[in-house]
Write a structure and sequence with these properties.
Helix content of chain A: 25-40%
Number of helices of chain A: 9
CATH superfamily of chain A: Divalent-metal-dependent TIM barrel enzymes
CATH class of chain A: Alpha Beta
Number of domains of chain A: 1
Strand content of chain B: under 5%
Largest sheet of chain B: 2 strands, antiparallel
Largest sheet of chain A: 4 strands, parallel
Shape of chain B: elongated
Oligomer: heterodimer
Structural class of chain A: alpha/beta
Strand order of the largest sheet of chain A: 1-12-9-8
Order of helices and strands of chain B: HHHHHHEEH
Radius of gyration of chain B: 19 Å
Number of strands of chain A: 12
Distance between the termini of chain A: 31 Å
Helix content of chain B: 55-70%
Number of strands of chain B: 2
């Protein structure tokens, strides 16, 4: 299972957030979007989101709290909620991260890296299989941006991710900004990771902005997408173009004209049609 | 992998993940082998993210403290595990109220929440089911006024609020 969990050549999208719902509704076309799964009440989804579903937009519930990389199996109520959101939005796919967000009663409040060990692979594979068994649709797995690595690491990021997706059959949600952030922060070449990853398993791609502070690159989602990340989209699409690429913006929302310009830049880099002008 | 081996793997992973989580949000030392500087950067980024989330849930509280908001929030939240933005804001606003550092512009917001929620500071806030809407704000305001008066005047502080 890989890219075929979504229709081919969907194109460019942008993450749905209440603050930019009007800008999204005003786009001539929006083939693809995503909503934070935990923010949706399945019995009462936002009407603006339902009208996008009616328009034919593919809407993916994107989880941030499953803690698939946690030492505990995912709590059943969280999986049930995800399943109900997927059904309410007629989603073909859901997604969450290869990370943990809580442990030992502590909520970290953000996606935290896991040690890249064989033992962690076993735990994550078991967590993902249990979640898969209780979901009506596939779940795509997204690698995160990490500000630091574990001293326990035995596997490279590509080995670690490949092993998890091969053993679970899950598609990948590749965040191209995270690929960039991790490469910068580890002093590596981002295209080397693209070469090492199973790109045929990529269901869709996240694109986002960040900023350099304290000598590290922070994946903020509140800054414009930097040119280096747009270049990496070109590198990715030259190897294998994913079915969809989606801009994530989570605060400091720009003027509608700036947001549209950013979507146009992603369209240009990927070769997909613009979604800001009528076809 | 056998069930037992997986269970052991889960236990070892849990211990490691909890130690790192405690270093990130609960003031525990960074576990051995990690890059201290990078973990400190992550800890700081978590505080900023949390400050933004609490500001979103408590807009008057954050706005009333203006440019000092982030400093005050970070000073209060450092080493204190996140309990969700509703509760974090509740705890901070109440602490500022009892030490008479809650700006007037934030009193109505805290009063309104005191009216809406039953919160004993131990268990998560629960919606008050019985309070008719017309008494919510006056009741809350009364609670906030009582809370502020409960502190002796000597507790009022002239130092910059929240900075450590």
């Amino acid at each position: 299972m890989g890219a075929d969990v979504l229709p081919a050549e969907i194109g460019v999208g942008v993450g749905w957030r209440p603050e930019i719902a009007d800008v999204l509704a005003a786009l001539p076309s929006l083939p693809f979007t995503e909503v934070i799964a935990e923010s949706v009440r399945p019995a009462d989804p936002p009407p603006a989101l339902l009208s996008l579903v009616e328009r034919g937009t593919v809407v993916i519930p994107h989880g941030v709290r499953l803690s698939l990389g946690g030492a505990e199996p995912v709590a059943t109520h969280r999986v049930r909620h995800m399943a109900e959101v997927a059904e309410a939005l007629r989603a073909p796919l859901v997604s969450d991260h290869i990370a943990y967000v809580r442990s030992g009663g502590l909520e970290v409040g953000h996606l935290t890296p896991v040690p890249r060990t064989r033992e962690t692979v076993d735990v994550i594979v078991d967590n993902v299989r249990r979640v898969q068994a209780d979901l009506p649709v596939p779940i795509a797995l997204e690698p995160i941006a990490a500000l630091f690595d574990w001293p326990d690491d035995e596997l490279t990021e590509a080995q670690f991710l490949t092993e998890i997706v091969e053993r679970t059959g899950a598609p990948l949600l590749l965040d191209i900004a995270n690929v960039y952030a991790n490469a910068v922060n580890r002093g590596e070449d981002p295209t080397a990771l693209l070469d090492a990853l199973p790109l045929e398993r990529v269901a869709y791609v996240h694109v986002a902005g960040g900023e350099e502070a304290d000598g590290v690159y922070h994946d903020t989602h509140t800054d414009p997408t930097p040119p280096a990340v747009l270049d990496l989209i070109r590198e990715l699409c030259a190897r294998r173009r994913p079915p969809a690429l989606m801009l994530e913006r989570d605060g400091d929302y720009p003027q509608p004209s700036e947001l549209r310009a950013e979507l146009d830049a992603i369209a240009a880099a990927s070769g997909y049609p613009r979604i800001t002008t009528p076809a | 992998m056998s069930g037992n081996a997986l269970g052991d793997a889960r236990q070892r992973l849990a211990a490691k993940q909890t130690a790192l989580a405690a270093a990130l949000v609960a003031g525990a030392p960074t576990p051995d082998g990690f890059d201290e500087r990078r973990v400190a950067i992550a800890r700081s980024a978590l505080l900023n993210k949390r400050a933004g989330e609490v500001a979103h849930t408590w807009p008057a509280l954050a706005a009333s403290l203006g440019p000092q908001w982030r400093t005050i929030f970070r000073g209060w939240a450092a080493g204190r595990p996140p309990r969700g933005s509703l509760r974090d804001g509740f705890d901070l606003a109440r602490e500022l109220a009892v030490t008479r550092r809650l700006p007037e512009a934030a009193v109505a917001e805290l009063a309104e929440r005191e009216g809406h929620f039953y919160y004993d500071g131990i268990r998560p806030p629960r919606h008050r089911r019985w309070t008719p809407s017309f008494v919510r704000t006056p009741l809350g305001r009364l609670r906030v006024q009582l809370m502020s008066r409960a502190m002796p005047a000597s507790a009022a502080s002239d130092e910059v609020p929240g900075t450590k």
